[in-house]
Write the structure tokens for this entry.
Amino acid sequence: MIDLPPDLAQLRTLRTWHTMCLREVDAAIAAAEQRAAEEDRGKAQRPPAPDWMVERGIGQGAPPIEVHVGGCHMAKNARAVTREQALQALVAGVRACIHCRPDTELGILE
């Protein structure tokens, strides 16, 4: 047990102070729960990653420079493509990402 002051005024001051602290903790908990709920809603509403992506160079009309598996963290300036379009790009000589290895995933290399 902790040592508490003997007089009533100090005890009431301590109670007031602890009540204020508890309200702040409750508010912080509510804010953290709201952030977690918003994050969960965002994840649930996020569209799924495409199966395949083709990265394009910089500039309008730039040619494709690399093929990626959907969700690859290395893909920048990429757009979703079908499996057939990814295969065509690889066969046409577009480089396969060395991180996600779409050529292996598509069965071009084993």
Remarks:
- Residues 52-105 form one domain.
- The CA atoms of residues 70 and 103 lie 13 Å apart.
- The chain has two domains: 7-46, 52-105.
